[in-house]
Design a protein that fits this description.
673 residues, 5-stranded antiparallel sheet, Immunoglobulin-like, single chain
Length: 673
């Protein structure tokens, strides 16, 4: 039934979109005012059509080939409203069932998509699945058996009355006995349960008042029967950072065990010492030549490995790389590295290396770390770089040359046009020597011929940003070492605001709620204009008042029942929208969620949320909610608002939390273990 209903709505949307200009389509757009569908200019909105439930959000995107901003409009704002938007996307929230169009406009081009909103289908049942069984509400479960310390995944699937799975529904998980197992974490409709102690308990999934349970049997873990250490033998050199061992634990059937406590020891701590151990892994630091036994023990069973520590071989040779290098004065640094080898040519590590340079007026050491060193060129000349370790040395030749002078300066772009009020316009300078090679690291000075036209906001090396001030033209100049390059900057006056549109044009809200409006400014050619000052006003401030303004957007607070106008004004042009404020409906029911929280231990805190609804089941906001708890010695209310309450567990026991509004109440159970 639901599938057929969705298909019929989508078909109606497509057929009506193709009706003649004399007909009005079901999405509220007259054919004569529909955006152009010329394939060479139309924008493409994705998805082209979508179906969501009341209360859900949906995102639409549009692809543009320029950086011009995109404005979005909804054909019927009572069906869906704009929640947020970016440079090429919009986020909508579905308000009521029906169909509407979503239109994107940029630089005179438009594109649209269809949105169908259907009523939210209630949860009728839940199935819960684990590795052993799939259960439906009211079923008796075959047990799922795991070992203490292990974890098991449970998946809940809310379903409608026809058994169709429902996605995006909130699922709450509970464990019957939290001493046997606990919910480790949840992701959407999945829960990871950790087995703690031997015993039997139930795992329950709840969604919208429906639930299903599975039985979990936790068995005692098998004892450790054997321990083996790998590698069984290892040889290291004094001075090496560390050597690693790992222990493998197995039961009497040879199955590998995890999560057990492992203790590490070494027979001679003067040969090597433990620097770290974590479960079945340990690291040892060699201290002096000799041998020692490494032992791993778990539940009375042990395994061993032999560790031999030998004297490190001496350094026999030092090689510096590169053997020759050339650098220019003013370059940041030039780097060298030393390779140490023993008499057999094997590379050595962890030895102290000392770096020197024969002439510190040519270059100086800016950093050295073990076998690496960096030198800063100071003046033209040559010097010898030396690396020394254990009396052995290696050298490299460093030649420092004078940098070539700047021969030409080019400014890019050579011409640019900007409007008054734009943030900035950017230029860059390219410096070259007489052979046309690009140069870097040179001082560049930026100037402009007329600071009344534009002024320099920022300059850093070969880059500069200028702020347009008034209409006119000026020359931008970059100078380095007596050479200059120029560019022409033309600043034009921005087009005036010709029309102001306030969206949505009509809106209805209940007293106490907030509502947002936004403005679109256009020039005489119909192009959107930005960065202009906008003033907002309300015709009757006793009906609604301005809560917050953000340039082209405003948020109003509905005060009392009535009708008023919302006006946006920019550069002498104005646009209006109508706001109707209705009396809020009385509270008909109060629901507290979660309905039960049995996961608390003394000292924990948790949150409960109150949902108020009117006689039609619509959610009501802006009403005062009073929170009370039946036994404040078991748990107390730490903090509370009209939407939520924070509860702190004080002692073992149970209490009832009550939320009341306009004579209606809702309750939840608080269980402290």
């Amino acid at each position: 039934m639901k599938t057929a209903f969705i298909a019929s709505l989508a078909a109606a949307a497509v057929v009506c979109a193709a009706c003649s200009n004399a007909d009005r389509d079901p999405f509220g757009a007259n054919g004569s005012n529909a955006p152009s569908t010329d394939s060479t200019t139309a924008l493409t909105v994705t998805p082209a059509a979508d179906t969501v439930m009341v209360g859900d959000s949906v995102r639409f995107m549009v692809a543009t080939h320029d950086s011009q901003p995109v404005s979005w409009e909804v054909g019927d704002s009572t069906i869906a409203r704009i929640e947020g938007q970016g440079s090429n996307w919009v986020l909508l929230v579905a308000g009521r069932n029906g169909a509407t169009t979503i239109t994107a406009t940029s630089s005179g081009r438009s594109g649209s998509a269809q949105l169908v909103v259907i009523e939210r289908v209630p949860v009728a049942s839940i199935t819960i699945k684990h590795s052993a069984d799939t259960l439906t509400a009211g079923d008796t479960a075959s047990a799922d058996t795991v070992t203490a310390g292990d974890s098991e995944t449970f998946i809940a699937t809310p379903r409608d009355a026809q058994g169709n799975p429902l996605s995006g529904r909130s699922v709450t998980w509970a464990v019957g006995d939290s001493s046997i197992a606990r919910v480790e974490h949840t992701v959407r409709q999945t829960a990871l349960v950790r087995a703690l102690h031997q015993g039997t308990t139930t795992i329950t999934a709840m969604s919208e008042g429906k639930s299903a349970s599975a039985q979990l049997v936790v068995t005692a873990p098998p004892p450790v029967a054997s321990v083996s250490v790998t590698p069984p033998a290892d040889t290291v050199v004094v001075g090496e950072d560390s050597v690693f061992f790992s222990a493998t634990l197995r039961d009497a059937q040879g199955r590998q065990l995890s999560g057990r406590i492992v203790t590490w020891t070494i027979s001679d701590t003067s040969v090597a010492r433990i620097v770290s151990s974590y479960g079945p892994h340990a690291a040892f630091r060699p201290a002096k030549p000799g041998s020692a036994v490494v032992t791993a023990t778990s539940e009375g069973k042990s395994g061993t490995a032999q560790l031999v520590v030998i004297v490190p071989p001496p350094v026999a040779s030092v090689t510096v790389s590169p053997p020759n290098d050339t650098a220019q004065v003013g370059e940041d640094s030039v780097s060298f590295s030393a390779t140490l080898r023993d008499a057999q040519g094997r590379q050595l590590y962890g030895r102290i290396v000392t770096w020197t340079i024969s002439d510190t007026s040519i270059a100086r050491i800016v950093s050295s770390y073990g076998p690496y060193a960096a030198f800063r060129p100071v003046k033209a000349g040559s010097a010898v770089v030396t690396a020394t370790s254990e009396g052995k040395s290696g050298t490299a030749q460093l030649v420092v040359i004078a940098p070539p002078p700047v021969a030409s300066v080019t400014v890019s772009p050579p011409n640019d046009t900007a409007r008054v009020g734009e943030d900035s316009v950017n230029f860059s300078a390219t410096l070259r020597d007489a052979q046309g090679r690009p140069l870097s690291g040179r001082l560049v000075t930026w100037t402009i011929s007329d600071t009344n036209i534009a002024r320099i906001l920022f300059s850093g090396g070969p880059y500069a940003a200028l702020r347009p001030v008034k209409a006119g033209s000026a020359v931008v100049t970059a100078t380095s070492e007596g050479k200059s390059g120029t560019a022409q900057l033309v600043v034009i006056a921005p087009p005036p605001v010709a029309s102001v549109s306030v969206l949505p044009p009509n809106e209805t809200v209940a007293a106490g709620d907030t509502v947002g409006f936004r403005v679109i400014l256009r020039d005489a050619a119909g192009n959107p204009v930005y960065g202009r000052s906008v003033t907002w006003s309300v015709g009757d401030s006793s009906v609604a008042r301005i809560e917050q303004t953000m340039g082209a957007e405003v948020v109003l607070r509905a005060v009392q029942e009535g009708t008023t106008t919302v006006t946006a004004t920019s550069e002498g042009k104005s646009g209006t929208a109508q706001l109707v404020v209705t009396a809020p409906g009385p509270v008909a029911s109060v629901t507290v969620s979660p309905p039960v929280d049995s996961s608390l231990v003394v000292g924990d805190t948790t949150f409960f949320v109150a949902t108020l609804r009117d006689t039609q089941g619509n959610q009501v906001s802006g009403k005062a909610v009073t929170w009370t708890i039946s036994d404040p010695s078991v748990a107390r209310i730490e903090a509370a608002t009209d939407q939520w309450a924070e509860i702190r567990a004080l002692k073992v026991g149970s209490a009832t939390l009550t939320a009341a509004s306009e004579g209606k109440t809702g309750t939840a159970s608080v269980v402290v273990r």
